[in-house]
């Protein structure tokens, strides 16, 4: 796996965007994570490997500099970047409707990856905006895994659809002289 300079710079900028926006969301207890816009952006432009590496590095670096719990979620970010690149290759970022579909699928799959981490590493409580919903579901009689899964699925669907729409919107507004050199962008042009 070898990336050109433009891809490496894009990945570095995307990692900073992910960490800064994600940390702000944690600080103000937003019900959305919004920490994968850069990862999806890289996936759309540079493909699944670059997207997966961007997601992984985001969480590992974020865990070292600001939020140690972020490190545990690197598999989720890896999957988000990988899927964004695959869906870009399949042309799922050509329209609003297709982008929403990509976000929904990414939301479901990222939930499947995240739930075991949340339950078995954190006992169902991560300090994220979904903790209240999880606590409510537990209080009304649901099991821990079910409570975490439902709370996170609802949140992840909204978060990943929004994330994909924002990333797609950014890609559509980037100058053609910048995007034309990225192999995967050609599959996402309307």
Order of helices and strands: HHHHHHHHH
Question: Helix/strand-derived class?
Answer: mainly alpha
Strand tally is 0
Number of helices: 9
Rg (C-alpha, Å): 16 Å
Low-confidence stretches: none
Fill in the CATH topology.
Answer: Arp2/3 complex 21 kDa subunit ARPC3
> Could you say what the CATH architecture is?
Orthogonal Bundle
Q: What is the straight-line distance between the termini?
A: 28 Å
Folded structure, characterized:
The structure is a single chain. The protein is mainly alpha-helical and 190 residues long. It has a single domain (5-188), classed as Arp2/3 complex 21 kDa subunit ARPC3 (Orthogonal Bundle), CATH 1.10.1760. Helix content is 74%, strand content 0%. It has helices at residues 5-27, 37-46, 48-65, 69-72, 74-89, 96-122, 131-139, 144-173, 176-179. Helix 2 packs parallel to helix 5 (74-89), helix 5 runs antiparallel to helix 6 and helix 6 runs antiparallel to helix 8 (144-173). The two termini are 28 Å apart.
In short:
Helix content is 74%, strand content 0%.
Protein traits:
single chain; 190 residues; mainly alpha; Arp2/3 complex 21 kDa subunit ARPC3
